[in-house]
Backbone:
């Protein structure tokens, strides 16, 4: 089943959110088109707004209130993508940046700041202090995750805990907050919105682990970039950590550096793909999904709960 | 009179704020030391916290409440300095960035994000929705100012309005917000905190214009960088705009580009310094200060009002 068909009953509300997203970045600043591009590129999926709306369905759902939470979380996600781009751009042009390339990066940095600022301006339409508190904490953690991701590049002595903490901050927390803050804005009782947070956290962890697996198993066409890009860029993901339990693979992996070429790394990517590492990573993703199903069982039965169940199932099976 | 002596009665409270500032960026993340450096470098002045405290003195002053506003505004200021550094670093190393230099810039970008996030986490300790709303709007405007500053570099066809809008966003708004939000946190009546905002805005405009004048009239030692650095980096400030009314100066100014060397620009800096432009810029700064004095006259008489008067007077006379 296609992901978007699972929540087609949210389509009217998602269309409202889409319009507000467009309006929020249009403004009168031409430089923000770069940021706008990002919003359009990731268009359609809108995972975070979907989670916000589904969280809201557990309580007093009012689209005119909840849309502000959905737009805010999608904008925060977008801002982080724009800043990630600054990092990636710099790498792609390593050693030979053009003035124009650097100019764009500077603009991108401030554009990211601007989008983050805009998201805050939208959320302040809602006077709920808990909302602001949880959101501010999430932003701090996401930023720490970004710093860690750079710090941990090419650090082959990192352990599983290090990886899990990083993807928690990088991905899972924003999904968890989407589920929770949608519920908070709908005045859902504390014990319910805390469980929705946990559901989002587990699903977010499985989502990122699956992403990291697909970077090895996907085709270049499916991924829109060469398979193995993560390792090539020094990002040590779960399959790599598991593969390093094999002494021969470990020997090859620790050789990877900023000077490694795509051609040089290809045999290693194939070896990791054919090792047990992928299966082990899938097993951990499945354990997180099991936890997500379990916590859903403790939530009030409703249509949104069924959808959350299906979304979790989809994430476990997606191929790209 | 030394600036800090004007508000020595705030010293105990400023010491509390200093401690909270240190604690807020220490954390357990070594990469944040770079950001910490910035806080220490600008140490002592703490203009924004001073304005916050003075704003608060017009109402129900509680240091345990108001310190959060002061720390938040100083952190937002710091975050913007850290991001400005990314821009400046890149320029200094134009054409030949080292891996290390780029690495630092990436970390600096995320460190700025982190500091901004931390500031939000602190302000959410206060449940006042107006505070959050005004603050979010200020952040958006400051970001727009940063984008504009890059966009407007080397754009010699810009007019006075363009410059004024830019320094409003870049400097004056954060000072205006400091005065106002300190007052809002102390439950000052609307008509009073709006006037405090205006006072801060006028003083902030005069402050930045003075800064832009000093970039021409200060010695290299006073400035800690070569005089004329602004124009050298393509920043068109008020003295430059006034100097361009002189056709011969204009001819030279529009030749300035990214390829202009320090030696080449020196005679031009001297010519601008000796022209009427400096006096004209001082006159505009004084007009803003007059407006600041006038609005102070409409505020309730109190010790804080006297201090705000003295601070404005100091800003008009400072030599570096």
Residues:
């Amino acid at each position: 089943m296609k992901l978007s068909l699972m929540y087609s009953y949210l389509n009217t509300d998602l269309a409202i959110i889409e319009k507000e997203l467009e309006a929020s970045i249009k403004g009168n600043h031409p430089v923000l088109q770069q940021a706008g591009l990002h919003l359009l590129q990731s268009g359609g999926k809108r995972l975070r707004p979907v989670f916000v709306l589904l969280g809201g369905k557990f309580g007093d759902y009012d689209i005119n209130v909840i849309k502000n939470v959905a737009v805010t979380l999608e904008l925060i996600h977008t801002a982080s993508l724009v800043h990630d781009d600054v990092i990636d751009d710099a790498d792609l042009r390593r050693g030979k940046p053009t003035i124009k390339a650097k100019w764009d990066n500077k603009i991108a940095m401030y554009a990211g700041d601007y989008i983050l600022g805009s998201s805050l301006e939208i959320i302040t339409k809602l006077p709920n202090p808990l909302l602001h508190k949880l959101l501010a904490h999430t932003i701090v953690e996401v930023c720490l995750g970004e710093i860690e991701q750079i710090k941990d590049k090419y650090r082959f002595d990192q352990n599983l805990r290090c990886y899990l903490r990083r993807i928690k901050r990088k991905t899972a927390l924003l999904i968890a907050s989407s589920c929770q803050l949608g519920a908070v804005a709908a005045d859902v009782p504390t014990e319910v919105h805390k469980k929705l947070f946990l559901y989002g956290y587990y699903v977010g962890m499985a989502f990122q682990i699956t992403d990291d697996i697909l970077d090895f198993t996907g085709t270049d066409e499916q991924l829109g970039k060469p398979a193995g890009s993560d390792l090539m860029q020094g990002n040590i993901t779960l399959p790599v950590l598991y593969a390093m339990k094999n002494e021969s693979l470990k020997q090859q992996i620790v050789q990877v550096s900023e000077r490694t070429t795509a051609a040089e790394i290809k045999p290693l990517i194939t070896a990791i793909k054919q090792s047990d590492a992928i299966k082990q990573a899938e097993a951990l993703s499945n354990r997180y999904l099991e936890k997500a199903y379990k916590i859903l069982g403790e939530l009030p039965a409703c249509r949104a709960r069924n959808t959350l169940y299906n979304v979790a199932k989809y994430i476990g099976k997606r191929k790209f």
